[in-house]
Request: fold
Amino acid sequence: MWSLFLRNLFFTALQPGLVTGLFPYLILKRESQELFSGAFGLLQYFGILLFVVGIAVLFDCIVRFAVQGDGTLSPADPTKKLVISGLYKYSRNPMYWGVMLILTSEAIFFESPGLWIYALFIFIAFYLFIVLVEEPRLRKDFGEQYEEYRKSVRRWI
Reply:
């Protein structure tokens, strides 16, 4: 159990941590954005709300992968069981939605054109990864169970 917890912690820091933390920070730094000007408007509050929702979605998915799937969010250490409960009843990729909500919240909060462009790039990368790598692996690993799931649940929403 501790091994699974530590692996999930490591891959969470590595993957969504870099994508939603370090890289946006570097983009803002390059734009010479002031991280906290002290003046919060409607956009900043909306950004915070989206951020909280994105974190909740991401956390729920990571916990489900560990508890129900007996694995991690990383393709290097995938789940051993297909996870189809919770948000996965409505979307085959809610974890990606969680990350996209976080990136969108950061772009809104900081009013950053660079973060909008980055979020678009990440969405395209996610889409290509899902279609070219993840879905074929799931077909191979889970066979008919995944095919039935794929037919009944949309890729996004």
Remarks:
- The chain is about 70% helix and 0% strand.
- The two ends are 32 Å apart (CA to CA).
